[in-house]
Amino acid sequence: xxxxxxxxxxxxxxLVSSQFDDLxxxxxxxxxxxxxxxxxxxxxxxxxxxxxxxxxxxxxxFPTAGIHPNDLTEDWEREFAEIEELVAAGGFVGVGESGxxxxxxxAPHGRQRAALERHAALACARDxxxxxxxxxxxxxxxxxxxxxxxxxxxxxLRGVMHCYSxxxxxxxxxxxxxxxxxxxxxxxxxxxxxxxxxxxxxPLSAVLVETDAPYxxxxxxxxxxxxxxxxxxxxxxxxxxxxVSEEEARRAxxxxxxxxxxxxxxx
Length: 267
What we know:
- It is a single chain.
- The protein is built from 9 helices and 8 strands.
- The chain is of the alpha/beta class.
- An 8-stranded parallel beta sheet has the order 1-2-3-4-5-6-7-8, with helices on both faces.
- α4 links the parallel β4 and β5.
- α3 (76-89) runs parallel beside α4 (109-126) and α4 (109-126) packs parallel to α5.
- It starts with 7 loop residues before the first strand and ends in a 6-residue tail after the last helix.
């Protein structure tokens, strides 16, 4: 859309992944695409530390701290104590990502739920948004039910359901709990009718866009490494399903991301 397009925020990416050995070029392409800010999400203690360091070096990047449900070891409580210490020291814009992954099931469900509750408590205590990952096997909704039940115990919680893949009814439950809904490049996939239907049903005031880079590259980059610049395609797809202009979708999702994560204006 050119230099006059409203800026975008990539609300969820993993730039500390080993796949990014060309970060300067990635960040330059991001800025050229008018993606002026990105939230660099941690999946464990080491990535939280790396994200904090990276975001101190690159303008427009903002880190989070948390443990992904697929990375919860038997010693996760000791590791989470380190996350608490990092967050207490400051510099992070969110807690997570945490959540429930019943697709890969690399940790017992009880451990995943206990960790989600600890992350939610930390987010509330530090007045930070919680980044929630929920993934189920096709057609099942147990993880979405369990996440809603766990998060309902934390009044005043705010946060985001990232890379949302549930149905509209569960999305409404999460909105009632104080959470936003974020859509990834999946929104551009030809077969993603369910995800697009959910996006069409939600108010723009509750929606964010993300890449989840280096994963889930949108059309027309599908099958390649994803990066923050590509969030423009997801914003365009959101505009299409909502029946609004790309400018309106860009302005709304950027406003929503900045409010949620406390990001400065960067126009």
